[in-house]
Every structure is written in C-alpha cells, then in structure tokens.
Amino acid sequence: VKGGPMGSARPAPIAGQKAPTFLLSVAKDPVGANLERIQIVKGWVDAEGKAREKVFDVLRAPDAKGVRELASAWADPDFDPAEPSFYYARVAEVATPRWNAIDATRFRRKLEAGVRVTQQERAYPSPIWYRPPAAAGARQNGD
Fold first, then answer.
1. How far apart are the first and last CA of the chain?
2. Residues 86, 128 contacting (CB under 8 angstroms)
3. Radius of gyration over alpha carbons of the chain, in Å?
4. Which residue, 14, 118, 133, 141, is the most exposed by fewest CB within 10 angstroms?
5. What whole-number percentage of the chain has pLDDT above 90?
C-alpha cells in the first residue's frame, strides 16, 4: 500500500510508521555465484551541508557458500522525517576466483606475492529518494 518502485521519490511514511519500510528480495544470476549479503546504502546532506553516507547490513547468508535468494524487510533506524535522503540496495555475491588465479591454476604457474586472486561482484538498483513534505512540494512547484 502506497509503495514506490526503485527510482521513485517517496513522501513521508504512512501514518503510524516511524520510518519508511523497504521490502528487499534478490535472486542470484543463474550463471553467477551465490549471494553473500544485501545492504542498504543511505545518503543525505547533514545540517552543516556535508554529504553523508551510511551502509546498513540487512541480511547475510548463513555461511561462506552463500545462498540462491535473500529477502527481508528493513526500516531506517536513524530516520529523520525532516531530512531529505536517498536509499539504494547493494547486493554482493560470494567471492570468486579472478582470471589470474584461474589461469595460474590452468597453466601451473605461481602468482606473485600480493596479487589479488579473488573478486566480488555487486549489483546496485536505482535509488529511492525521500523528500520531506515541504521539500517535495517545493520541488513540484519548479524548485
């Protein structure tokens, strides 16, 4: 009820809610690695005009092998209804071997010390923007 898709601007929370609630559901790529975690990244500008960002861990796979799907609901514990902000999900796969590690194994070569041998793919959907009622009205009027 009164939800909004990714990329939308959200008004104030529904009456009775302290903060907007986000429903998150992700599934792994059929040819990709399993999923390790899902996070919410929140961005805002503080009272001094400085851009801020905070990462919230929403859900983690129970072990290092990861899972095929992750789903959870999340509400911002630091929500300030007067503060414009944006939110987006960040989904991480489990770490997988990089091409250099695969080639080293295939060709029986030793890698130099300190060379990265794993990578972690991530996915980022469009953000959802929160605009306080006064800011939302001003924006609609051409500001």
1. 28
2. yes
3. 20
4. 141
5. 66
Amino acid identity, residue 84? P
C-alpha to C-alpha distance for 49 and 2, rounded to whole angstroms? 31
Read off the amino acid at residue 41.
V
**HSE of 77, CA atoms in CB hemisphere, 13 A:** 6
13 within 8 A of 136, measured Cβ to Cβ: no
C-alpha to C-alpha distance for 88 and 28, rounded to whole angstroms: 18
Identity of residue 14: I
Per-residue pLDDT tens for 42-69?
A: 999 988 999 999 999 999 999 999 999 9
Within 8 A by CB and 6+ apart from 15, the residues are: none
Q: Measure Cα distances from 132 to 13, 25, 42, 51, 135 in Å.
A: 10, 26, 15, 17, 5
